[in-house]
Amino acid sequence: MNTKDLQKKIRLLAEQKNAVILAHYYTTGDVQDVADFVGDSLALAQQAAKTKADIIVMAGVHFMAETCKILCPEKKVLIPDPEASCSLAESCPGEEFAKFVKSHPDHKVISYVNTSALTKAVTDVVVTSSNARQIVESFPKDQKLIFGPDRNLGSYLNATTGREMLLWDGACHVHERFSVEKILELKVQHPTAKVLAHPECKGPVLKVADVVGSTAHLLKYAVGSDETEFIVATESGILHEMQKQAPEKMFYPVPPEVSGERTCACNECQYMRLNSLEKILSCLQNEAPEVDVPDGVRQKALQPIEKMLEISAQLGL
Ligand code: 13P
Ligand code: SF4
Question: Burial, 11: exposed, middle or buried (Cβ in 10 Å; 0-12, 13-18, 19+)?
Fold first, then answer.
């Protein structure tokens, strides 16, 4: 079946079953185009929290589907490929994080949304890259804080807020690979281009960036600003929406550093790319694979997610 026919079939089935398809900006263009809603991690959680659909199809990665299930336990949450994990979430096993938290009883715990339900269950407030700075700043200055699991986002937040949060030593394998050398090479080729970077990138990349922000923030900046050329240091799936919203502008994806025995030369998240039209159709037809979260964990993980949504609403995010 060709792309258009597959998309038509998916849309028809989604309507028949009252299913909503949510997709992250890092999925492929054909997946983004079939979704009811495309967004960053915060926007996807906000959509899940308010949807009236009976079924949520999360075309993203596992922690995003888990977040949907935690917010909407009565709904069927489907994931097109159950292997769609996240290296950042995996860098923070729930049991180990819980031990770390227990050994610092005077600290409040802030966790990035890219975590398992178990990690969220020992967290005071969840953040995404869209609201992390504001949520960190909502704590009194003398409150000791733990931030996990992304050490790059954590260091960036420490530098921008003046806090000294204790950081978990985790990272995203995609964002860690972006190379300053490649950015500088692109800068030579396109001297007026602005460098956009996601805060999951390493410090040296963030230092040469003109704008640091979540995928939604980078998109908004690129579309709304007067500049016409951008060097983009985040997963290249975002270029689909950037190009769609600003077809007259130029976007250059930053290639990753390739060294030694590394075989992967892509700036794509292979987990996000596991989502395909065929798998979305099949999961809608079979209403599987389904994502579940045990009730005890779910109830503990719900509180810090709801807190994040509450603070974000107050801040108009
Ligand atoms: P945002 O969606 O918050 O920009 O995060 C990017 C990411 O890596 C999601 O996995
Ligand atoms: Fe996880 Fe990185 Fe992929 Fe985002 S891009 S889902 S943080 S591995």
Answer: middle
